[in-house]
Amino acid sequence: MHEVRSNGGPSARRELDLLFPGLSRALAGRGSGFLLLGAWLSLLALAVYRRPRIAEFISHPTGSGLVALASLVGLLALTWIAGTRAVDPGDPSGAVPASRLRSDRRAAIGIGLLVVLGSAALLAPLLAPFDPDLIDLGAGRLLAPSASHWMGTDELGRDLFSRVLYGARVSLLIGFLAIAIAVTIGTAVGAVAGYAGGWLDALLMRTVDLFLSFPRLVLLITVVALFEPSIPLIVVVLGLTGWMGVSRLVRGQVLSVREREYVQAARAMGYGSGRILRRHVLPNVATPIIVAATLGIGNAILAEAALSYLGLGVQPPTASWGTIIQSGGDRLVDAWWITTFPGLAIVLTVMSFNLVGDGLRDALDPRRGG
Amino acid sequence: MSGPPLLEIRDLRVVFRTVSGDAPAVDGLSIVLEAGEALGLVGESGCGKSVTALSILGLTPRPAGRVVDGSSIRLRGEELLRAGPERMREVRGGEIGIVFQEPMTSLNPVLRVGDQVAEAVRAHLPVGRAALPGRVMELLETVGLPDAEQIARAWPHQLSGGMRQRVLIAIALAGDPDLLIADEATSALDVTVQATILELLDRLRRDRSMALLLITHDLAVAARMTDRIAVMYGGHIVEEGDTRSVLDRPAHPYTAGLLNSIPDPARRGVRLEAIPGSVPGIGSWPGGCTFHPRCSRSFARCEAESPPLLVGPATRAACWLLETDE
Amino acid sequence: MGLGRALVAGSGVETLIRYVGSRLLQAIPLLIGVVTLVFVILHLAPGDPTAIWFNPSIPPEVLERMRESMGLDRPLYEQYLHWLKSFLTGDFGYSYSQFRPVSEVIGDALPNTLLLGGVCLIVVFGIGMAVGAWQAVRRHSAADSMLTFVTLFLYSMPGFWLGLMLILAASTWLGWLGLPVSGMTSVDHSLLGPLDRISDIAGHLVLPTIALGLGSAAGVTRYVRGEMLEVLGQDYMRTARAKGLTERTVILRHALRNALLPVVSLLGLYLPLLFGGALVIEVVFSWPGMGRLMYDAVLARDYPLVLAASFLFAVLVIAGNLLADVLYALVDPRVRHA
Amino acid sequence: MVASAIEARRGAGSRPFGRALLVVAAFVAGCDSGPPRGADPMRGGDSLAAAEAELRAERAYADGVRQADSAAHASVDERNRYGGTIVVSGRNDIQTLNPLVATDMESVQHQAYVLFTPLVRSGPDFEPLPWLARDWTIDPEGDRITFHLRDDVFWHDGVPVTAADVAFTWERVVDPAVPFFNPAYFDAWEAVEVLDERTVRFTVRPRSNLLYGWAVTAILPEHILGDVPPDQLATHPFGTVSPIGSGPFRFVERVPGDRWVFEANPDFPEGLGGRPYADRLVYRQIPEDAAAEAALRTGEIDMIVDADPVSARRLAADSGLVVTSYPSAEYSLIAWNTRREPFDDPEVRRALTLAIDRESIARVVRGTYGSVSAGPVGPWHWSWDPGWEPLPFDPDSAGRLLDRAGWTDADSNGVREKDGKPLGFELYSTPRQAWQNVAAIVQANLADVGVVVEPRAREQAALIPLVTSPDRRFDAFLVGWSRDVPLDDRDLWACDRVDDPMHFTGWCLPELDAVLDSMQVVPDRESLARLTRRYESLVADAQPYTFLYNVDTILARRAGLRGVEADARGTWASVAHWWLDPESRR
Questions:
Q1: Is there a contact between C51 and D16 if contact means CB atoms under 8 Å apart?
Q2: What is the pLDDT of residue B192?
Q3: Domain A160-363 belongs to what topology?
Q4: Which residue, B10, C4, D58, D229, could crosslink B72 as a Cys pair with Cβ 3.0–4.6 Å?
């Protein structure tokens, strides 16, 4: 390490970042600096602490193990790159009205929570203190939360904290995929209905009404009974029954955008409607869709949990938060932790999605101000 | 006129809280208005005119806006900034009426027009339920609305822009105020309707010997309607005097610049001059004389020190040119 | 608003009736569509109504005869036509899992769901509007940001989990409250006088209503707060204050009336949510309503009961949306007197 | 000599397969935990010793309760035991009181003991005792039986119960148009003759448990249902809206999905015990265990029938409550589909049973209210031999058996293979919580001996076709089942009925067919017991099922409710003698 120049000019501090990304910004008292540094150090500590498990994942590669390793490396790389980027000059903070700030802060908290939850889910195989399916019918059954078992154990002696961590993977995965399907279908239907108008619009909207007035439960149970209940099935079913809201939203936006001059201009220049839709209309509709999608993921996670609680969602042994809650349902009074902790995990996750969704919506539409 | 003036504002300072600290919107404004007199407060948008009007009525947009201590707004000598909420309610509509700029959105869409006028009447005058409709009809007729009966029953969205502005004037007059503030009252209307509203305001002022504070960016409108004019820039008054003097012998370069940018039939063919640069946003006003960066005749002192109102040939202006005898 | 366009053409009551009429006409194909879809999906699922009776000692031939008596051996379209004909003539058929005519089964369950759903609706919109408006008026205050956090927290909570936590609390540290944790009526209900019966049911309503309503109440609060903020920023609020009206009048007479307009349309959206969402809550609290009935019926492949319940659910949804539209028109003069 | 039991699998009290799945699954839904503080075997403790100690303590507690009960009996004078409303709650609603259609335990018990007066009544060892029939004589050739009825039993609408009612009931039960759930009870009953108002004679074939059908099937009122066409009896409102009975209690009202209310029948004959002590008897459906427990603690209900072992542990600790249990006909099993490799090999089946820790499963799922099941006969049956031991939990010999059967872990990847095929199977069950726990334990146990288990949860109506259709698309099937007094298991094992729905395993043995056939006709109990022993040993050797655990029915009641002597005949057997301490009447 060559000597650091006395005045510790910016370039000197930059070298420190190579080893400790974000350090220079932390020294400059910038919040993001502490965050990056904290992330970097904790990821390193995890890698060191879990050396044996990493070695085992390498020797006996399993699906989830590889995902965990890949995400550990990925997160380290991300933090390093973010940390070492040149310290951006003081941004000219124009007179930003306080309300904009608040909504950004809420979005920031939401995103922060999501990053933590997401990485915890991805790194579950490394983070989990025990194997989630390890049964201990002896002394380990139904232990209350303690130092060794942060969230206690269930009736088969399995460590609840590990199961909730692994459950996060299932619930988050289902939430994202279901919304992806719902938003895709919704956007397609909404865009075509909004843009085409006329009888096609009426037909599509009547179909939307049909789906909205359809008892979702009948479809869910029948599909679960018809096919083998599995994560892809739940995702498809939630996706198929969740797109109607998005389609109405998109249609409204497309209707308003369609009248705008630049769209008529494009039409005048002879562009095909497909191109117009893709190039001009949809980008302007993107923001409300993103907001709807973010809020939608929260609802999808809630729906999956309810389904699993009714025994219709994710089938054991895969543990999703809903199934864990169901397993604790009849031990509510004396093994309260089995039901409580997965519930809290759901609330925290859904809240962070809602925080981000709210923050985005208010930031993008200041009139409704935070 | 003996006794304190109808309205006297001295060193009014209003700031807005932003991410990077408090930004001043009104920075040391002082004006005086006698009873029955018409004063034009003229300035480009963003110079703090509307904030001044709202502050007079104690309606500074909270919580972002804040009237800084040391400011003073006296109504016939009574300091309004220290008046309690009940007193301020009596003043609003009872002693000072205000008409805003945007007639299309200033009426409550879900209440009938008559109810919105009656509400204002009952807030200040001891009018019984029975007499109320009559009083409302009378008000609507005085503001020149033809079929008052039908108008009273109508909903706001059923009236044109001009008719709605007349209703708003009726509302402002409901409490027989001594001072009427017209904050860009005609800017949103098209020219023909604008003229009829201005003529109405003038007639009402005379009939009721009511003071008028006409806030506008349009010097021509101020010229027709007011006895005196105060030109506002950078949150305070830069020139003030009786209308004729300000129009004919402006002492402040900014006022001169404003006058030159008005198309005047007398100077047909002469190229209109535009004042270089643009009005700085709230909170980013330069030091010294706020106009100096855009003033073609600015010199060292302008940048250093903010000039007070100095006595000029016919008007008073905040410009160091008056002191130097160049 | 569809209604708005219709009302623009004419004005007054007869347009309203014509509009409602056209909406009801549109609803008929929709209802038929829903019920047909349910019929097809149910028959696609493996297993059939005899599943509930699948008794080891019933010889196969008896089971066969039972299937014939239910008409399950006939081709699908024939079953559908037969069912549709009887359904349209008001004969909802016999529920094999409840051993009673379907109309009777639904007759018992529907009022309970309407009761729970109705009470929830009142609580949800009552709290939502009051808290939302109160919060908006105190914008940027500590109370505002605290409430924003709390409503977000409650809005993100799974209803059934909240139900379980309420049962946990009611049977442990809140035990002294003696809140009933299951069913709709206590045991000796039939012996009670009319007044006691009402208070008995009310007692049973407390926990399910909280479990079902809290999340939605938080949702409505957030929505009303947003609407209220928007209204408070409008110009006519400034006019109202400039008139010298008291703050209370300004808020109640001017702000609230305008903010509540869109809330009425929210009512239409929440109707199906409350009755659909009630299902899990009804299962947790064993509330004898339509949700639990539907859940058991679908599991037991009780075709007539599921079809009738689905039809009713669709009617509720369509009626809800229509009601919201009509209410919106009545409340907003801009639509009523275009 | 006829044995009858209310808990019969296929008798009136039996649970249809479908219901068996749902009910038994729910029945064992809660595995148990005790309050974390108390010494609780399910909590593991260190060894089985702790579990035994707990069992002994449990029995001592039960005996103590019985003494307290009889002491109380003597202390309170018989006269003021009358009065009060007894409220009983159970997990499932009574489906109907129409005996021709009822299939679930709650409905049948209310028919036989509460609402109606059956022809005969079962004694403690299920031998038939006089009830509606004062006595009966069997002709020397044994082909005709004549019943003499009491003259003091009336329908609740005042009409006397006569021989015509008995004949009418028999005609409907055997009528093919009526979906009676257990025709096997009466297939030895050929014809009926009404000699006079009080005498009815049947021609019969020799049959063991001959009269058992009449103990569990209530007599129907001919004057009400006489002219109802047989095929409409099933959907007649008699069962759910207006049941007219002849028993100790009369029907008052029903609130669907919530409760059934009965009141004492003042005209019930003294000879049969006279008017019951309680004024009113209520049955409430509370599916959620936590809710039922809370209702019992607050006194809203007096007894939980079939309580969940989890709540039972907690309730037992409460001084104001009493928890007892009795062996029931319920048991759980894994059925191996012997039509598929490798379950056709008895060695493999035996190894799988040896490798499964049934003791832990019983303890986890049932706590002290269950025992490892040794075979098709359970502790509730009169012919049960306590000395008959189940296979031990012995993973080592299981491993050796698998090696011998050719399943070895050549590539030592922890999973045994044979000719390249790994040893593993899918274990099907419904998504009930108890089955998930059992499946998880089986998965862990078999993993230790190199067998891969994949639990598959399928909703009941979808699962039934899988396991009952001829192509039998399953390897192993975890299910709850209920036994029957006549032990007529021919539909499970008979070689000529391999394709019947219930023949899951597809395993059969000609010798076993002979044993089962003779068990249905042999007249005396000693030879019936001997044949039953032979039946048990044949099944134990072949292990077509891995028998898991027998279930004890748990009754949790307020101390103030007395006279509840429940045994294998069913909870409501002694309902007429239940009474409430005067001060604990609501």
A1: no
A2: 84
A3: MetI-like fold (1.10.3720)
A4: B10
